[in-house]
Amino acid sequence: MTTPVATQSDVLVRRASGAFALIDSLKRHGVKHIFGYPGGAILPIYDELYRAEASGDITHILVRHEQGAAHAADGYARATGQVGVCFGTSGPGATNLVTGIATAQMDSIPLVVITGQVPRHAIGSDAFQETDIFGITLPIVKHSYVARSPEQIAAIVAEAFYIAQTGRPGPVLIDIPKDVGLEEFDYLPVEPGQVNLPGYKPTIKGNPRQINHAIRLLRQSERPLLYVGGGAITAAAHPEIARLAEYFQIPVTTTLMGKGAFDEHHPLALGMLGMHGTAYANFAVSECDLLIAVGARFDDRVTGKLDEFASRAQVIHIDIDPAEVGKNRTPQVPIVGDVKQVLVNLLNRLEEENQLPPPNQTLLWRERINRWRRDYPLTVPTYNHILAPQEVITELGRQAPQAYYTTDVGQHQMWAAQFLKNGPRQWISSAGLGTMGFGMPAAMGVQVALPHETVICISGDASFQMNLQELGTLAQYGIPVKTVIINNGWQGMVRQWQQAFHGERYSSSNMEVGMPDFELLAQAYGIKGMVVRDRHQLTDAIAAMLAYDGPVLMDVHVRRDENCYPMVAPGKGNHQMIGLPEVPQGGRSESSHCLSCGHENPAPSNFCCQCGTKL
Prior knowledge:
17% strand; six-stranded parallel sheet; Rossmann fold; 35% helix
């Protein structure tokens, strides 16, 4: 970290504290909202924040737990693309932020996390509420700082924001000892982008030769598949992905993080792939001859058994992080660069060539995928006396199609990913770390950032109890988040795995005993509470929830032992799913060419009689 030398003759040097330098620098970087919780070591910063709030420059949202602050800043960043900011004090305040920092790091979310620290002279003495948060968080941040003097603060903030939001985004920690916040000095502001980081130069433009190589493979492929991850959302590359898909008529599947990067109503959209992805997306990735990975990292929940993932395909991998290219799968065409910029260059090159692909180049491939789509659809079950969770998700999506959705983690998360159709940045879920308790505080952050949008948190009864204290934050600020609990009385995904892989030994996964009355809990916080136990209540209850001008907690009781399917079992390939619907009796009604060996199989065969591949 280097401190820039001021050259602007119009900048007025003034006497100020380190805390003033911090708050002023945050304002200069466009920060309007901070999520946090005060404490002893960070009090000088909160004292300066008091003045900024009084003048209307910044709004501070007081959470009830620092983990909620990190998740709220995370949701704020995911919904807007801006850097989220949160505060915590030293010791337990800082360590309470760790889960939220790790969540952001795993999903490449830009945060600036500011912690108070004991005074410089006390560091290393086991002082009251001292922890080495710099050391603790080293594996889970993109970069981190300890401000050793107030003169460094403005430059540190400028660098932190630049690092957090450029290249592959991520969280940056700034640890500020208490006496650094108090000490006065001759303050000289540092403007956004005024940094000197010679060792940090993310690659933006892709290699032209590799782009040309990718175009050659695209022109040759008869079974291409676009595999789109969260990097496409970060880069705002959805228009370019749509153009590329339509140009070559390429089916598109997305990861959990990539939802919204491609219009999920589009005929080429296959939904999510992976462990709980659609059957047709998983069959497609197993049979494609060219896989175009765009801002994706070949995560184990996507690939299943890695050596069987797209095993018939050549791979083009586009990503801004060179560490991800070739990490899990060696591509034939690696392209390091900003996803949007690479796709723009690729599309411009196609225009220069002025050579349209054959109109039917992918026709047989798309027809085959559509047969899979017909034979193995996602279905919404109905039961006589109890709601299915899928019904609840589907009705939410019908009544609030343009809402911003956050989720917690588990079965409800996977059902939401399967049945909701979201626009870019309107799907907000902890993917890489799988953090229970993420949903409601993340929704707070989204709602604060976008006060005029509808924000819905879909949670489970177990996940919700991880951070239920944030109902107090919703109540204090009147943040109108609508939280829907899919209540089956279990840690649902744990129960499903125990049923499938652990001999139905349900060890410590039942949540019934000790579960609060969620309606009364909401009312205790001064929030509207609702309960739905019957299908006939559902439509009107959701409509009433959405119409209510304020926060709502809705407890929806669903079938207790419903499982989330399809599912790729651990150690299996994506084509080996369990829980698929039965193909209609008599099998297929039309002959099918096997795309593996070319053999024409007569109806009603479901498998190639030449090589055994599923048709």
